[in-house]
Amino acid sequence: MPPSDTCSSIAETMGNVGQQPNSSKGLPQHFSFATLAASASPSTIPPMPSFSKSESQSTPSSLSLELASGSIIHRPDWVEYLSGGGAAFVNIVMTFPLNKVLFRQQLHGIRAKKALRQINREGLHNIYRGVLPPLLQKTCSVSVMFGAYEQFSRIFKSQFPSLNPIVILCLAGLLSGSCEALLAPFERVQTLLQDHRNENKFRNTHHALRTIYSLGIRECYRGLTAVLLRNGPSNVFFFSLRGKVRSALPEQKTDTGMVVNDFISGAILGAILSTAWFPVNVVKTRMQSKVGGEFRSFVYVFRQIYAERGYRWRAMFFGVHLNFTRALISWGIINASYEILKTSFQSWSS
């Protein structure tokens, strides 16, 4: 092949790839961009990648689970946490006075009339004394109850898809109840402030919390065993029966009717479970009402109270009627408020 033909061939080849041939002296040779453009065909130009809206923008639901190097990253759903907290806030503000009467019955084993007389002597201006601890505790507790349960359920379903749904429900309920128990110091302070014997010992929530904290972190969690025995199992029953009770009610097509069904299903479950675990709450209240001194086991305190009340099982249920009424109202409000807030937040976020 003649040298001139060889150079032309090399120039044409190098032009197709956008590079310049070198001369024998190592200097770049000049070539025309027009020639380069003419030599380029549509088939030689790689197509630009196209991105659809669904591919370029991730939705909030798609962000809850991300695959990264074969592992699944779980992000909490703030809607469930916020809805649970908001529902508990509404409930506490509405039912605190009733709960205060019930507390006196649990602690002292007295009738409702005597508990009401105690509160009346203290004055109506003190009716909401001690509301801050349950407001903080219950708001955070119910928030964790609903949010953590849904979160643990999603984790188990994605990581262990072959696991029995009943096992997943039980594990998620127990774990969410255990997470709630981390907030036991708020419940502990609430017990101290509502006990009339401590009326002159603690000025407010901060003073009570500072006092028990000065005795050690263990003092803050006095009665933790009773809290765990109550939270975990009751959560399992609540979440396993919640949907079944609601589906057993007459179907409603209006928003008001659905709210009523949510209230009824929550009220029925809350009243039954609260009554079943009432003796556990009695023991918890006694354990948490003590400041300092020896730590007694759940069984020891139970036997002590049982002996004090004449070994009568019925006496362990002093205040159960008022507790049933309170739970009926409280859990009806919580369940209905949770569904309303959850629907509103989901609509707003979408």
Task: Describe the structure in your own words.
The chain has 350 residues and is mostly helical. It folds into two domains: 1-39, no CATH class; 78-349, Mitochondrial carrier fold. The protein is built from 15 helices and two strands. Strands 1-2 form a two-stranded antiparallel sheet. Strand 1 and strand 2 form a beta hairpin. The protein is globular. GO terms for molecular function: NAD transmembrane transporter activity. Pfam families: Mito_carr (PF00153).
Please summarize what this structure is.
This protein has 2 domains: 1-39, no CATH class; 78-349, Mitochondrial carrier domain (Mitochondrial carrier fold, Alpha/alpha barrel), CATH 1.50.40.
Could you tell me the mean pLDDT? 80
Q: Specify the helix fraction band.
A: 55-70%
In the CATH hierarchy, what is the class of the largest domain? Mainly Alpha
For the biggest β-sheet, the strand order reads 1-2
**Gap between N and C termini:** 71 Å
CATH architecture of the largest domain: Alpha/alpha barrel
Q: Which radius of gyration do the C-alpha atoms yield?
A: 33 Å
Number of strands: 2
From the 3D structure, determine the CATH topology of the largest domain.
Mitochondrial carrier fold
Order of helices and strands: HHHEEHHHHHHHHHHHH
Strand content: under 5%
Helix/sheet category: mainly alpha
Low-pLDDT windows of residues: 6-74
Summarize the biggest pleated sheet.
2 strands, antiparallel
CATH superfamily heading of the largest domain: Mitochondrial carrier domain
Number of domains as seen in the coordinates: 2
